[in-house]
Amino acid sequence: LNKEQETEYLGAMFAMAQSDLIFPLEERAEMSSFARILHEVHQLVKKGDWETAERERQLSDEDRALLAQCRREGKPLPDRRILSQRDFQRTLRLMKFFQGHFGRRVFRPEQLEAMEREVARDAQEAEADLARREAAQRDGPHAPLAMRPQLTLEKRLAQEARKAPPPGGSVQQIRRDSFLLALSMSYYFCLSDAEQRSVRAVVSRYLPGADLGKILADQMDAFLANFNYGKGIAQTWAIKENVFVSIVCALTRTPLIIQGPPGASKTLSFERVRENLKGPYSAHDDWRRYPALEAFIYQCSKASRNEEVIAIFERAAQAQRSSPRSCSCVFMDEAGLPERSRDSLKVLHYQLDHPQCAFIAVTNVP
């Protein structure tokens, strides 16, 4: 796909997903703007350097085979910057999370619990309807049973929140901010200062009046307004950023790796997240609206083995199945220590492609 075809495709994908979004994307121009921003930011991030990707062992088996074929036949290398379904789905998933976050501001914890019970009851009834439908089809031709529409908690929040828009502005503004926060989670936080300036310029070009830097700072402050950092801990931008991305990635099961020099508040930020996210036992109402975080900590070393990594993921997945209203998270400390020659972290590929729990790793080295 060329640039125009891809942006048209992304706009259509946003439109198709509107029934699942908290606030449906009703304006075609806005969908097109979101698609173009996503496309151009992806182009900035994925510069298509095949040699660098090969050197850093970031190529898939298919990419390596394609690279070898092009070199053999003397053909030019294809552009690696096309937005993948994984990139798009991650951004859409994060966007839905932030829209749900704005919706949750309207309701008290006990209201959310009542909604969760109603959603669970609806899910059970929908399963029973499906079983009756399958049984009727096995018994012979009958008039098809009407399928019961199944609402997720986020859709239920959408229905209620649209009757009384959440604090913080109009539905359109909330929709825009949710997209920009999702874009920041997917790309912005990973970039250098110069690249971040380029992203801000792209956003301003397609969404006039939208200052990504200010929106991000304001929304992070609002999101963490009642977060307890602990006594004697300075609320620097670094720890705010680490706390923010850790909470969002844990709750959405988006794999996260925080890389930085010693003393950059990487482990400290996760410890503070654990202390704040305790579900109904959290110190503040803001965090009672979210599930409790249950951490499964693995301390990496040069002698780390595949079996140890698999075991910690299995424990976390089992805990998640046993307690679906909690959030199980594997926290991997010093993830840069295991030796590459041992391939002790190779098992992460499957675990992160098929997440059964959240995953956060911190490392001092890239």
Question: Overview of this structure, please?
Answer:
By secondary structure, the protein is an alpha/beta fold. The protein has 15 helices and 4 strands. Strands 1-4-3-2 form a 4-stranded parallel β-sheet, sandwiched between helices. Strand 2, helix 14 (306-322) and strand 3 form a beta-alpha-beta unit. The radius of gyration is 22 Å and the shape is globular. Mean pLDDT is 77; it is low at 18-26 and 142-150.
Sum up the structure in keywords:
globular; alpha/beta; 15 helices; 57% helix; 366 residues; four-stranded parallel sheet
Mean pLDDT equals 77
Coarse morphology: globular
Strand content: 5-15%
The number of helical runs is 15
Proportion of residues in helical segments: 55-70%
Order of helices and strands: HHHHHHHHHHHEHHEHEHE
Rg over C-alpha atoms, rounded to the nearest angstrom: 22 Å
Distance between the termini: 32 Å
Largest sheet: 4 strands, parallel
Number of beta strands: 4
Strand order within the widest beta sheet: 1-4-3-2
Task: Outline the secondary-structure elements.
Elements: H1 3-16, H2 28-45, H3 50-55, H4 61-73, H5 85-104, H6 109-139, H7 153-163, H8 171-186, H9 193-206, H10 212-223, H11 237-252, E1 256-259, H12 266-276, H13 285-288, E2 293-299, H14 306-322, E3 327-333, H15 348-353, E4 358-363
Parallel strand pairs: 1-4, 2-3, 3-4
